[in-house]
Design goal:
CATH topology: Porin
CATH architecture: Beta Barrel
Structural class: mainly beta
Helix content: under 10%
Length: 260
């Protein structure tokens, strides 16, 4: 199998970008069986910048080494781990674990002073992807296994890869649902945290909309430069929080990967 069919390289591009909460894990894109030896792996370097929804919080910038591994049983990409399940025709299934670094500390911005820190954690769930010649539909549901928010979230979307020689472009659109517990933990304000300038807020379930474009340019059969541009339209359950001062967040990232 040549490198253009190697799915995990794009999966990692999503991981390094730290997209919306569900997309911060990574995007699974199975495109065929593993190599003859049953496994493949790659290393690289990536960086990203993402605006944050919280008022006064600086953009989050990341630079990190990248490591990928995949065989017929598992897929590891960035902070995500998939345990592959048997396919059902064109639909691929997996059990998924991922780490999310969302949240904040009270010293991240003046407007968060007096707020208890909100922590990221491990999310466990399941994912599926339906493959067709026209496009691919993906879905995922997960719960907070760390017990911080004790919340649930789900995502469904569609993407389509367009190829032109060494260059490929994959636009996608998805919607993500977050339950009341998730929103209340990350965007709520308890009575003890409320101030004259920061009213109490009880979070409620909401839906975010994500638009995303991933790109890849093959430098050689083993190496590629990747990039991602994306934006998230935050649901009203989030934007109504007194901690939030914007309705949209944006992200951009680049990476380099070498496959062995």
């Amino acid at each position: 199998m040549n490198f253009p069919k190697y799915s995990a390289r794009r999966s990692l591009a999503i991981a390094l970008l730290g997209a919306a909460p569900l997309q911060a894990a990574w995007s699974d894109e199975p495109e065929g069986p593993p190599d003859a030896d049953g496994r493949h792996w790659a290393i690289g370097l990536g960086g990203s910048v993402q605006t944050q929804p919280y008022a006064g919080v600086d953009r989050k910038t990341r630079a990190l080494p990248l490591v990928l591994f995949e065989n017929k049983y598992v897929r590891v990409a960035g902070p995500g781990l998939d345990l592959k399940l048997p396919d059902a025709g064109p639909v691929a299934f997996s059990l998924r674990a991922r780490y999310s670094d969302e949240g904040y500390a009270e010293d991240d911005a003046p407007g968060l002073a007096g707020m208890a820190s909100r922590h990221g954690g491990v999310w466990l769930g399941a994912a599926a992807r339906w493959r067709s010649d026209f496009a691919q539909v993906f879905a995922e549901v997960s719960s907070d296994a760390s017990g911080h928010s004790k919340g649930l979230q789900a995502r469904v979307g569609v993407d389509k890869e367009l190829r032109l020689g060494r260059f490929s472009l994959t636009p996608s659109v998805s919607v993500s649902w977050f339950d009341r517990k998730y929103v209340d933990y990350y965007y709520g304000v308890t009575s003890a945290e409320a101030l004259a300038t920061r009213s109490q807020y009880d979070g409620r379930a909401t839906v975010n909309t994500d638009l995303n474009v991933r790109g890849r340019y093959m430098l050689s059969p083993q190496s590629a430069v990747t990039f991602e541009l994306g934006a998230t339209r935050l649901g009203s359950g989030i934007t109504d929080s007194p901690l939030v001062d914007r309705s949209t967040t944006a992200r951009v990232g680049v990476g380099y990967l070498y496959r062995f």
